[in-house]
Amino acid sequence: MLLRHTPKEVRERKALTINPAKTCQPIGAMYAALGIHRCLPHSHGSQGCCAYHRSTLTRHYKEPVMAATSSFTEGASVFGGQANLVQAIDNIFTIYEPDVIAVHTTCLSETIGDDIPQIARKAQAEGKIPEGKFVIHVNTPSYVGSHVTGFAGMTKAMVDYFAASNGKRSEQINIIPGYVEPSDMEEIKRIAAELGIKAVVFPDTSNVLNRPQTGKYEMYPKGGVRIPELVSTGDSKATVALGRMASWPAARALDVKCNVRCELLELPIGLAATDVFINTLRTIAGVSVPDSINLERGRLLDIITDMHQYFYQKKVGLVGDPDQLISLCEFLVSVDMWPIHVVTGTSGKKFESRIREITKNIPHEINVRAGGDMFLFHQWVKNEPVNLMMGNSYLKYIARDEDIPFVRFGFPILDRVGHSYFPTVGYRGGMRLLEKILDALLDRQDRDAPEESFELVM
Ligand code: SF4
User: Fold this and answer.
1) Can you list the domains of the chain with their CATH numbers?
2) Which residues pair with 389 in a beta bridge?
3) Region for 95 from its dihedrals, namely left if φ exceeds 0, alpha if ψ lies in -120 to 50, beta otherwise
4) Which end of the chain, N or C, is less packed with Cβ atoms under 10 Å?
């Protein structure tokens, strides 16, 4: 109801965010940490933060998400959380027996200024970290950044703590998949395997947050990148980083630390971006693209041809994370749709210029904002309505308010089930995405059709 009071008139706001288009840094750090096999994420702060982060991930993935917390109370808030964290490390290794504890901070512990490496060294000196077990960390103050930067930070921590070089280059290729669904990570691995490439994908939440129902609870599911694999990334032939915001910091760190050449690509969402991804892997590895991949590409092309008439010049409004939106925009433009309002909550210099470049041939004014919010997006929509909206579950209120078809895409999706099992990357992912978009458009057409034009065949 309150959304109906959103005014059309847009005024510049500097110090106020309304309906943020992002969530907090530790959520991304926790998600990335779950992509290491036998890793227990640890939230260094109060219990409330940890409960919020776990519940957001659980609601999105519909899987139990395990994480520990330093459980700050008044004492820790005043004197610092060192004693809590040392005790937690001892308890966690004794009771839950992970191979890795991945610590991320929260607003509170960052404001206090707790020095996590120093606390981990103290725990090590006191014999609280068993032989062959690890404590890694990332700083995730949530008054800056977003879940995307938290994810990027934890992924970089995997490089900082584990990657090593023995001086012998291997044929292996590192792929940093970015903040995508477990099913997307699985699809990226499948594509690499189809090409006959040995790849280390990190982090890798497939088979962790989209695991099968076996009837037996496993605290540490089978999925996740293994520690020896992370160590071996330092000797890989190259790193392919998918997405500037989520993956580039880790790829750069690996280059600096172990001299592993890195390529920055956009997320392989849509035909063109998937072509670039496959071509890059093919070139680095010196392999040919098999018929099986060409077949998938041909199917996506066929679907685009069949659906194009319904997409032509349809206006779209997008809210989401920067890496996803860049590739999604390119995909939509390639099928002649017009993304005219694009908002991400994550700040970043290159986002706006890249979206403008992708949309430069659209004969319509384009609104784009990095570090924006859904209130601004709503105002744009009120001024210039769209045929379709795509974004996370929070966008559904605006979609209902404005009576606009809505496709859920991105993070978090809290009110639907199944998205973590089906990829949106690669040619197959592109097919699924287009099907969802067309369903939304045609469902609306059917709903609004007068009886005489309510057609059986489209
Ligand atoms: S924004 Fe800060 S205080 Fe709030 S849940 Fe996230 S880490 Fe905790």
Assistant:
1) 25-162 (3.40.50.1980), 173-292 (3.40.50.1980), 293-452 (3.40.50.1980)
2) 317, 406
3) alpha
4) N
CB 142 less than 6 A from any atom of ligand 1: yes
Beta bridge partners of 174: 200, 239
Nearest CA to ligand 1 atom 2: 107
CA 210 to ligand 1 center in whole angstroms: 26
Residue 117's nearest CA partner among 85, 80, 93 is 85
106 lines ligand 1 (CB under 6 A): yes
The protein residue whose alpha carbon is closest to atom 4 in ligand 1 is 49
Strand partners, 426: 269
Residue 46 CA: nearest ligand 1 atom is 8
Mutate to test the pocket of ligand 1, among 47, 52, 107 (most ligand atoms within 8 A of CB): 107
Does residue 349 carry a pLDDT above 90?
no
Express each pLDDT in 429-444 by its tens digit. Answer: 999 999 999 999 999 9
Length of the chain: 458
Q: In the predicted model, what is the mean pLDDT of residues 15-25? A: 93
Q: Is 371 exposed, middle or buried (0-12, 13-18, 19+ CB in 10 A)?
A: middle
Query: 141: CA distance to ligand 1 center in Å?
Result: 8
Which residues, including other chains, have CB under 8 Å from residue 205's CB and lie 6 or more apart?
31, 34, 35, 182, 185, 223, 224
